[in-house]
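Predicting structure from sequence has reshaped protein science. With that in mind, we have picked out one protein's residues alongside their backbone shape tokens:
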Amino acid sequence: MNEKVFELFENKKILLRNLQKLNLSEFTKIRTISAYFGVDMKGFYTIVFISVAKSRFMKKNYIFLDDICDKYEKKFDTAIKKRILFYKSNICSKTLHELKSNSWRCYDFV
């Protein structure tokens, strides 16, 4: 794993057991998003997306990430309770509001 990823997790106090990097190439060709999957200390399955795209994060990106979550829920036969997004670019305010209203935690990083 990358040191920057661990640094992001440490800064936001995200502690996951059985942390594994997910291979998104099964579902998409997008290379600006990476995903990590693990179990938090309370036993909830958690998925973390890190978007390093330079373009603005829009609603279509949110729908795409939600679809990826659904596919991994089916693949691992689990219910992912916590969804976290780290984004580097600007984000549409409506998209950010929709993410937060659907129990996503969103963090900006540089």
